[in-house]
Automatic annotation (TrEMBL):
Protein name in UniProt: Radical SAM superfamily enzyme YgiQ (UPF0313 family)
Domain B12-binding: 14-148
InterPro entries attached to this UniProt entry: BchE-like, Cobalamin-bd, Elp3/MiaA/NifB-like_rSAM, rSAM, rSAM_horseshoe, rSAM_sf
Cell cycle recorded as keyword: no
Domain Radical SAM core: 217-449
Lineage of origin: Bacteria, Bacillati, Actinomycetota, Actinomycetes, Streptosporangiales
One Gene Ontology MF term: metal ion binding
Superkingdom to which the source organism belongs: Bacteria
Alphabetical list of Pfam families matching this protein: B12-binding, Radical_SAM
Keywords for this protein: Iron, Iron-sulfur, Metal-binding, S-adenosyl-L-methionine
Cofactor: [4Fe-4S] cluster
Length: 509
């Protein structure tokens, strides 16, 4: 396929109708499409590139943009909660003659199924760092390089599906050391040009943020909010949380200088004062945080950061580093209020005691907490569920939470939980090794046939099947617990949400 490429539209697909909102929906930008657009403009300066976030831009506006721009290439970021909207966009783009490419975690996990079922999708980019792959795809579509040289691209050929398993970052642009701790590898990704996203998107982010969280900033002016992503991965890379669907957890970093360059550029372009650093686990590398703190420019002002952190990794030293960096809020996956469930869901280092200790450390430091609770893990029972509900109340009663989410476990097919559903023999082996029970053997054996070929996944139904197979607590008990936690939080004005569930299934509370 060779064609002239003059315009590219990149869209982060918004959640499908009736999907329940999470606490931070629409308050921070989907930076991925902006970063992709930045590299395209650098490598293809004559290209018209627009990046749009469907989470805050109505679908009708995006559809009109597709018609008006008539893009030669349409790239769509896809999550499980946005797959329906992503397919609508792909169909519209294909009808307009665009080459269509899907990316992000859901597209990667379901790539083969998507390409087998959806003729409107030409390519899937499976790269975690997709900037260089997309730029290479543009060159390939223009006939400037073979399609076989585009890294981590999955596509149809006369002989079946092909997957170009090539390095996603060109070796000649990588800086720093190798191994798991790759100190400067992400310096290869340029600072995002946030002007490539429409001004009204940035205005909507700020409005949404202030409407939801403005009360935490009574003594300061918030002039802009943005996301940044100057480090990736997690210390649990070899033993991830069982429900984690992140495809690549290897630790990778930018230099401290690039971190602050990103901050300064966002300040200049969109007047950003609040930054969501999307490092999968900031607490996994205190050494890198210290290097960033030590490199902080004297004239950078007082930017505030919202970061991911883990209770098991939280220490007084880490909290002190966060304060020096300017962290005002942490996203902490508390997951449960029951030590047995925490060890099943996450690992041997996790416990209710560690959760409570971490919360106290952040509260004493004046750092706000966004937390989440996952209900219905392997072996969840009435006692463990009640412990988690009680823990949620403890968090609220002690005024520790800026926001709190609760939801039944969704077994992402890229996570260990999803792999257990798709491989009954593996599930039985793990259950025996880790001491949990399988409650419906016959249903477990049906899972590969039920979900193993279709690209359409009803995450309500998947979650309900998971519950029947692996949880002693019933689905109704999980929903009741979700309602109890969220309603208790909302009584005192705490922002709440639930992920990977439809509003119809969640119901009112």
């Amino acid at each position: 396929m060779t064609k002239k490429v003059q315009s590219v539209l990149l869209v982060n697909a918004g959640s499908d109708a009736d999907v329940s909102s999470i606490a931070n929906d629409g308050t921070f930008p989907a930076l991925g499409v902006v970063s992709l657009a930045t590299v395209l403009r650098r490598d293809h300066p004559d290209l018209e590139v627009i990046a749009v976030d469907g989470q805050i831009t109505p679908m009708a506006e995006i559809e009109q943009l597709v018609r008006d721009l008539d893009p030669d290439i349409l790239g769509v970021g896809v999550l499980a909660t946005s797959y329906g909207n992503a397919l609508r966009l792909a169909e519209l783009g294909k009808n307009a003659g665009a080459v269509t490419v899907f990316g992000n975690d859901q597209a990667t996990a379901m790539a083969e199924r998507i390409l087998r079922h959806r003729e409107v999708v030409d390519y899937v980019c499976a790269a975690d760092v997709g900037e260089f792959a997309l730029s290479a795809l543009v060159s390939a579509v223009k006939g400037e390089r073979p399609i076989e040289t585009v890294p981590e691209l999955i596509y149809r050929t006369p002989d079946g599906l092909a997957h170009n398993r090539l390095p996603e970052i060109p070796p000649d642009v990588i800086k720093g050391s190798g191994g798991a701790f790759k100190t400067m590898i992400l310096d290869a990704i340029p600072v995002p040009d946030r002007t490539l996203m429409p001004d009204n998107n940035w205005e909507r982010y700020l409005d949404n943020y202030l409407n939801r969280y403005g009360g935490f900033h009574d003594d300061e002016e918030i002039t802009g909010v943005t996301t940044m992503n100057r480090a990736r991965g997690c210390a649990r890379v070899k033993a991830p949380c069982h429900f984690c669907g992140i495809m690549d957890l290897s630790l990778r970093f930018s230099s401290p200088e690039m971190f602050w360059n990103d901050v300064r550029t966002a300040q200049e372009q969109i007047s950003a004062s609040i930054f969501y650093e999307a490092f999968d686990s900031m607490s996994s590398s205190p050494r890198w945080i210290k290097a960033v703190v030590d490199a902080k420019p004297d004239d950078i002002g007082d930017p505030k950061f919202f970061v991911y952190t883990q209770a098991a990794e939280t220490t007084p030293r880490l909290v002190e580093l966060y304060q020096k960096l300017g962290v005002y809020r942490v996203n902490m996956g508390l997951e449960a209020g029951d030590t047995r469930m925490l060890k099943v869901l996450k690992g041997p280092r996790d416990s209710l005691e560690n959760n409570q200790r971490a919360c106290h450390l952040f509260q004493d430091a004046g750092i706000l907490i966004h937390g989440s609770l996952v209900l219905g893990g392997p072996g969840e029972n009435q006692e463990s569920l009640e412990n988690t509900v009680e823990f949620g109340r403890w968090l609220i009663d002690n005024e520790m939470m800026a926001s709190l989410e609760a939801q039944p476990l969704y077994p992402d097919f890229g996570a260990l939980t999803g792999k257990w559903m798709m491989n009954p023999d593996l599930a039985r082996q793990v259950a025996k090794e880790r001491g949990f029970e399988i409650y419906d053997e016959e249903l477990l054996d049906l899972m590969p046939a039920k979900y193993g070929t279709s690209d359409i996944v009803d995450f309500d139904e998947v979650s309900k099947d998971w519950c029947k197979i692996f949880s002693h607590s019933t689905w109704d008990e999980l929903i009741d617990a979700t309602h109890s936690i969220r309603s208790y939080a909302e009584r005192v004005g705490t922002v709440t949400g639930s992920g990977r569930i439809t509003q119809a299934t969640l119901g009112s509370f």
